[in-house]
Amino acid sequence: MRNFRYHVRLGERRTTVSLDIMLSAYLALQLGHAPESAPAHEAVRAWLQQRLDLDNDPYRYGVSHWLAHQVMEVIVDKTLSSAYDQWFLQQWEQKR
């Protein structure tokens, strides 16, 4: 699978994160841009940066992985997301 790379800041340091091409395309569409275009790349990069700034954890590790989860929460249908949450809680309750 291909990934797109985005340059972001994590606190005071610059870092590069990778995002699966499909997640990047879905997020670009969600943001109103044609996937794999320069405006889409900039919009996705800005969205990723905003998410990092919102959480404000300059010592975060696994940044690409964490951001992929953030993207999934935005692009996944709320019905599907709710069904997953219910399933997850049931699994957790069974293991207690």
Could you outline the blueprint of secondary structure elements for this entry?
Blueprint: E1 3-10, E2 13-20, H1 21-30, H2 38-55, H3 63-75, H4 78-95
Antiparallel strand pairs: 1-2
Characterization of this structure:
With 96 residues, the protein is α+β, with helices and mostly antiparallel strands. The protein has one domain. Helix content is 61%, strand content 17%. The protein contains four helices and two strands. The chain has helices spanning 21-30, 38-55, 63-75, 78-95, and strands at 3-10, 13-20. Strands 1-2 form a two-stranded antiparallel ribbon. α1 (21-30) crosses α3. It is globular, with a radius of gyration of 15 Å. The termini are far apart. The mean pLDDT is 92.
Summarize the structure.
With 96 residues, the chain is of the alpha+beta class. It has helices spanning 21-30, 38-55, 63-75, 78-95, and strands at 3-10, 13-20. The radius of gyration is 15 Å and the shape is globular.
Q: What's the domain count?
A: 1
The helix content is 55-70%
Low-confidence stretches: none
Strand order across the largest sheet: 1-2
| Structure annotation, total helices | 4
Largest sheet: 2 strands, antiparallel
Strands, total number = 2
What structural class results from the helix and strand content?
Answer: alpha+beta
The protein's oligomeric status is single chain
Arithmetic mean of pLDDT: 92
Radius of gyration over all CA atoms, rounded:
15 Å
Shape: globular
N-to-C order of helices and strands: EEHHHH
Strand content: 15-25%
The end-to-end distance, rounded to whole angstroms, is: 37 Å
